[in-house]
Amino acid sequence: MQPLIRKQQSAFKITPNLKDYQAVSKNFSWEDVKKEIDFTGGKLNAAYNAIERNAKNWRKNKIALYWIGADNQKQKFTFAELNDLSNQFANLLHDLEIEQQDRVFFFLSRVPELYFGFLGTLKRGAIAGTMFAAFGPQAIVDRLKNSAAKVLITEPELFDRVEKAASFLPDLKTILVTGDVKFALKKKISGKKILPFNQVLSKQSSDYQTRMMAPDDPAFMLYTSGTTGKPKGVVHVHKAIIHEHISAKYVLDLRDDDVYWCTADPGWVTGIAYEILGSWSNGASTVVFNGRFDPALWYQIIEDYKVTVWYTAPTAIRMLEAAGDEIVKQFDLSSLRHLASVGEPLNPEPIRWGLKVFGLPFHDNWWQTETGGILIANYPSMDIKPGSMGKPLPGITAAIIDDSGKKLGPGEEGNLAIKPGWPSMMKTIWRRPNKYKSYFKKGWYISGDRAYTDKDDYFWFIGRADDVIKTSGERVGPFEVESALIEHPAVVEAGVIGKPDPLRGEIIKAFVKLKDGVKPSKKLKDELAQFVKKHLAAHAYPREIEFIDKLPKTRSGKIMRRVLKAKELGLPIGDTSTLEEY
Ligand code: ATP
Ligand code: MG
After folding, report:
1. Best of 227, 364, 560 to mutate for ligand 1, by most ligand atoms within 8 A of CB?
2. Rounded (to 5) percent helix, strand, coil in the chain
3. N vs C: which end of the chain shows fewer Cβ within 10 Å?
């Protein structure tokens, strides 16, 4: 058991938005939260709440977006400026005959056009879709064909991939290209109009009457990370903003004077819910860095912009740790006051490291593309049990249930399930109604993840249902084995799978990335196996260890255990559209 990280009210630089988890949970009502969102006649628009109302209140001249380009170019946008640009984009969509519920997709790196274009699409009542800029032509075809998008916004660097995909996309009528578009305009793609984004945008008026939508009208869609299989097109509605607003307030603790940096990409749900919607609806200034992962650069950004709240992912934290403690000391990071992490289980070791080098722990939280917002979290005011995902957001009923729908007690492993009906719950899986239905059983939303609760009602992640290992009759979660391995000073990261074994059903196999300079050897393998035996459990140690230079990950940074397993077994690896180059 890891020592508790205690939170003392007296130690806070500022009082957390969620002062008392128990009290707020007990008296919580979504009706109260709705009062923080602007409705007109029972209708609302998520983009109105994120940007427009701020452009109409005292925040209008406040910086909404600090943008840093890959080559260190810098731009700033106030709430009013972003609002005007999003209005121009909504007007442009009008000219392109985009109507309510038409799909408008963005295939862009993290450029400003992505942010105001997304908002403008919602204002028009169309459905905005995003795709991560690293996707290749096949991934683009899969997504745009499935969603039947009519408009695509892209940039010169990505154009050749779009060109390759375009002939497979009969519904796609218009391709807007940002930046320097001379070469793109010379191209001809039959049946498609190719337009220069900035030129056509600048001709549009910055007045636009935002469409107020029914709460359950779709607002945006995006595809899951594809960690377990083919990505699913998840559709979210305008009222999701209610959930994203309150979770950004309680979990990320955002408020007006924050400079907030979310390192996620809007190609994934975190970038949409907490880089665009929930964060701006709380009035925080957002930093966006459109560049690669680089520890020194990242710390420089925190120092330069005096970032106060930082939301990132375990894979990044482990890489920062691997870069060492010395580099941290070269920067003034004293502006930081709250750190959070999502996307994968956060092992205890990087939490302790954060505490050591930043003086602050990372707060893990759990959610999925399908849930549209954070559901289980560690809060600034709540003690952290390192390795635990925390407790359900006020207003959320989460439970561990068995396959027959029976609720399980503390310490019992089962399906992590949520009572349906929270505001940001997906509306459907695009064109796959049966897939959507398959998530719901016996009155619960079944997440597909395995977990347990402890006697204090903290939730603990075990693994994805398909990844849990059954060895000699015992169930072992890959996460706990991975966490034990990375406690060892020689290990940076580990991916653990069950490998079929005639005697034991499965044996545990670990793929281990060693720290720079550590020599792989048979002796080290034995040492690691013994280490897990001693620190975790005698039955849960890896009988096989393989050293690996790079773990296969999704482009959103999640370890793809199914790829490790397929390679191990010599099977086809399935959908690779979200696999990082490897
Ligand atoms: P696919 O559904 O296509 O296989 P995916 O599940 O990785 O991809 P996302 O919706 O991006 O797609 O990720 C949600 C999943 O990520 C969760 O179901 C869970 O397995 C994992 N996850 C996210 N946050 C955490 C966390 N804090 N702790 C443990 N696991 C997490
Ligand atoms: Mg999933």
Report:
1. 227
2. 35, 25, 40
3. N
Can you give the residue range of the structural domain that contains 85? 9-453
Cα dist from 86 to 116, 200, 205, whole Å: 5, 13, 10
Q: Ligand 1, residue 341: give the atom nearest the CA.
A: 27
Using the atom order of ligand 1, give the atom closest to the CA of residue 228. Answer: 4
Taking the C-alpha atoms of residue 112 and residue 128, their distance in angstroms, rounded to an integer, is 15
Query: What is the residue whose two structure tokens read 């408020």?
Result: 255
Domain membership flag for residue 544: yes
Give dist(CA 481, CA 478) in Å, integer: 5
- The tens digit of pLDDT for each residue in 239-262 reads 999 999 999 999 999 999 999 999
Q: Is 125 in the pocket of ligand 1 (CB under 6 A)?
A: no
- Residue 77 CA to residue 257 CA, distance in Å, equals 16
Calculate how far, in angstroms, residue 437's C-alpha sits from the geometric centre of ligand 2: 15
Which residue lies with its CA nearest to atom 5 of ligand 1? Answer: 225
Question: Are 200 and 312 within one domain?
Answer: yes
Cα(287)–Cα(310) distance, integer angstroms: 10
Which of 420, 453, 486 is the C-terminal boundary of a domain? 453
275 and 151 co-located in one domain: yes
Q: What pLDDT is attached to residue 184?
A: 78
555 close to 293: Cβ distance less than 8 angstroms = no
Instruction: Give the residue from 407, 426, 453 where a domain finishes.
Output: 453
Q: Which residue shows structure tokens 């700033």? A: 76
What residues pair up with 362 in beta bridges, in sequence order? 339
Q: What is the mean pLDDT of the chain?
A: 95
Element (H, E) at 446: strand 444-453
For residue 231, report the distance from its CA to the centre of ligand 2, in Å: 8
Joined tokens for residue 305:
């912009």
The CATH number given to whatever domain includes residue 90 is: 3.40.50.12780
Same domain for 442 and 481:
no
The total number of structural domains that make up the chain: 2
pLDDT the model gives residue 538: 87
Q: What is the pLDDT of residue 182?
A: 84
Instruction: Kindly report whether the global pTM for this prediction surpasses the value 0.90.
Output: yes
In a domain, 485, yes or no: yes
Chain position carrying tokens 């709705």 = 34
Per-residue pLDDT tens digits for 185-198 = 888 889 999 999 99
Ligand 1 atom nearest to CA at 554: 7
Cβ atoms within 10 Å of 46's Cβ, excluding its own: 31
- For the record, the structure tokens of 316 come out as 């990044």
Beta strand 259-262 with 440-441: parallel, antiparallel or unpaired? Answer: unpaired
Rounded Cα gap, residues 207 and 286, in angstroms? 24
CA distance 514 to 426: 39
Ligand nearest to the CA of 369: 1
State the helix-helix crossing angle for 159-166 and 137-147, rounded to 10 degrees.
60
Cα–Cα distances in angstroms (integers) from residue 363 to residues 51, 329, 382, in the given order: 27, 22, 10
Mean pLDDT of 334-350: 95
Which atom number of ligand 1 is nearest to the Cα of residue 226?
3
